[in-house]
Amino acid sequence: MPMNTGNFGNLYERRIDEAFFEGWDETPEQYSRTYRDIDAVTNNRTKQIIAGTGAWEKSGENVNPTEQRFKLGPLVFTQFDIFKSEVIMSKEQINDELWDEVVNMSKDSGHGGRQTVEDVAALYFEEMFTNALSTGYDGLSTFNDAHPNFGDNGGTQDNLTTGALTDGNLKTAIILFRKQKDENGKKISSIPNKLTVPQSLQFTAATILQSALQAGVALNDKNVLPNMELVVNDYWDLYTQTSWILSGPQHQLQMIWRNRPEFNKYPVMNKNGSQSWLGYARFQPRAENWRQLVGSRG
Q1: Ramachandran assignment for 165, one of left (phi > 0), alpha (psi -120 to 50 degrees), beta (any other)
Q2: Bridge pairing between strands 253-265 and 275-287
């Protein structure tokens, strides 16, 4: 059937909406290869740290067990930052049907939104070492050598290693990773399966992980490092060229979304006859537990 001006406009309005997410998805996500994506259901997220019971004790017939208890640790409280954008289509662009120009503007806004998420995620990697924003739930940086246990057995634990990324230092970090225990001192199944590095360490990391022989030494020893996924984060390279992070399959480094990215046409025309499309997202990265993570500043 013939397409009238109204239908033509509606068709391209949908195309503009689609272009934003085409721009967003144009290159593969990097942050989500290290973070877990989860959704929040209220304007903040609260998680209770709980210290469970200790190991079972040997007992005897008709002997009452020693009472053990669950003990509350700190609350992990997360509020969300808001991010917005606006793309304006002028009255003249509408009248002249310059849709390609606005599609490109929308796609570029998608690029900008995606970069924002990646940059926020990369900056939080730095926060995990410095605790400059006081996001460490135990009062310490996520990577620290004195994390307190909140169970009755007390004590501290360490998930901060030192040294540049080398075969030897990576093995030291893996050993530290596997020594992790829960809040009451029970051994946990902590085996790293991912190494995240800034772009500057891409080839150093690949050589260490993928060489047939041990990297960086004049020996013929076989490379015995466990299989790990290598994640190269280009955005983190803006803030460090030396740090690196090990993570395991049960880590709790979260990208928490209250509102995932939206890009919607503003329902009312602006006073000058232009039309706006509004981008919106609300999210926050957060390490809700330091376990299953080990980091080094290099």
Answers
A1: beta
A2: antiparallel
